[in-house]
What we know:
Layout: E1 10-15, H1 22-38, E2 43-49, E3 55-56, E4 63-64, E5 68-69, E6 78-81, H2 86-93, H3 96-111, E7 115-118, H4 122-125, E8 136-137, H5 144-150, E9 155-156, E10 162-164, E11 168-171, H6 176-189, H7 191-201
Parallel strand pairs: 1-2, 1-6, 2-5, 6-7, 7-11, 8-9
Antiparallel strand pairs: 3-4, 10-11
Helix pairs in contact: 1-6, 1-7, 6-7
Amino acid sequence: MKQVQNSKTMNVAFLIYDQxxxxxxxxxxxxxxxxxxxxxxxxxxxxxxxxxxxxYTEANTMSIxxxxxxxxxxxxxxxxxxxxxxxxxMKYLKDDDFQNIVLxxxxxxxxxxxVIFTICTGSMLLSETGILDHYDxxxxxxxxxxxxxxxxxxxxxxxxxxxxxxxxxxxxxITAGIDxxxxxxxxxxxxxxxxxxxxxxxxxKTKMEDSMA
Length: 213
């Protein structure tokens, strides 16, 4: 793990959209929220939608009202992009409105230094944006081949939980988002905070060390 970063409050925007996968969203969100409870001022978390209209999660099991829309969102230091099921991903890749409005907001922020953190198939959603070009990337095992086909300027990594490329962090399927969020908390604020969260979550027996890759 690299040296702990300067501990200013980080604005973390969680992009939400129709049929977003709940654990992709809530797993990392809870990591950063709890980190801010344990260490106040570490993270300011909020959701961002295309509009302020409620967003329905996968299988329409619940709706979420975004904290902000893309016009009113505070400038994010990091944007978290959760995934959705593969069929929905393919629809979004052909959805001009989603590409030109929602993902253009992501791209503009990325170009201005915002870190992009994708969960599961969230990386696949970025395939038409150029954000993934020339980076090592990953996604859910079900879409690794498709990710490779759509991102020939990138190197797709298989058999990993997450890939940290500084300005771009991508993860494998679903629960890997929790792993990567815990890793990022450690990167930002040290392994003691990460291990406190692991204990709080009752997540796993093995503590993360500073030497974690």
